[in-house]
């Protein structure tokens, strides 16, 4: 079976906006008397804005204190702060090797998709000047279930018109790798603690078309045997 698509997560794979998310959430959390550090912020990687807010409220012992309208207002304030900070993103904000691997995948006539829960993903891709590399970006506003549910990766595959078993997914978060596996795709994990990925890499510097095609070929051989 030929590899027909590669689907990327955004934060931590293409660019690193985790610190920008942290600063925005920290500002909102401090207003309601909750403090947390960047170590806790790691737990918010790969999950939706509202799910992140609920984890922060739980962390601060304030789960159930705010009604739905208030939660939406808090999440909206965080997003406003985050969007303002995106002005600092440029082409130089791409993680090492990403521009090159995107070009290599396109040269191999393999489709490229995005599976990010960020509602700001299109704006980020434009800021990084790589939006033309992606043939389809899953619409996070239409996703009902957050990672580790496979919904967003299945949506990306459907938008690219490929079957999940014909695609590789790339993630930097444990929940994201779980989502890729649950979708029936082959998974590549970037960073530590992702031993459940089919292929684990230390950083995006190791990511290349040769790396992906060799991984695909090796798995195909195993399945045939």
TrEMBL record:
The enzyme's E.C. designation: 5.4.2.6
Top-level taxon: Bacteria
Catalytic activity: beta-D-glucose 1-phosphate = beta-D-glucose 6-phosphate
Protein known as: Beta-phosphoglucomutase
Database matches in InterPro entries: B-phosphoglucomutase_hydrolase, Beta-PGM, Beta-PGM-like, HAD-like_sf, HAD-SF_hydro_IA, HAD_sf, PGP-like_dom2
SUPFAM superfamilies linked: HAD-like (SSF56784)
Keyword terms: Carbohydrate metabolism, Isomerase, Magnesium, Metal-binding, Phosphoprotein
Similarity-based family: Belongs to the HAD-like hydrolase superfamily. CbbY/CbbZ/Gph/YieH family.
Enzyme class name: isomerase
